[in-house]
Amino acid sequence: MAPVAIGINGFGRIGRLVCRAAFANPNATVVAINDTFMDLDYMVYLFKYDSTHGGYKGTVVAEDGNLVIDGH
């Protein structure tokens, strides 16, 4: 069965939780995140250092204008 492709509209608290849940599920893959009001470096920071759910254990970087989480 192919993974379910997920697009996230907004990268606030809920969008980040959906993204974390998708990366924890082998049957889901995040294909796009849309947030026109958030800078890419700030997206990296917020995903890495969540004050409620703790720091993300994997890698989170900005590469070539893209948010790259665990190499994806």
TrEMBL record:
Keywords linked to the UniProt accession: Oxidoreductase
Pfam family, one: Gp_dh_N
Sample GO molecular function, one term: NAD binding
Occurrences of domain Glyceraldehyde 3-phosphate dehydrogenase NAD(P) binding (ranges): 4-72
InterPro entries: GlycerAld/Erythrose_P_DH (IPR020831), GlycerAld_3-P_DH_NAD(P)-bd (IPR020828), NAD(P)-bd_dom_sf (IPR036291)
GO biological process terms on file: glycolytic process
Superkingdom of origin organism: Eukaryota
Residues in coiled coil: none
Gene Ontology, cellular component aspect: cytosol
Similarity-based family: Belongs to the glyceraldehyde-3-phosphate dehydrogenase family.
Protein name (database record): Glyceraldehyde-3-phosphate dehydrogenase
Organism encoding this protein: Thraustotheca clavata
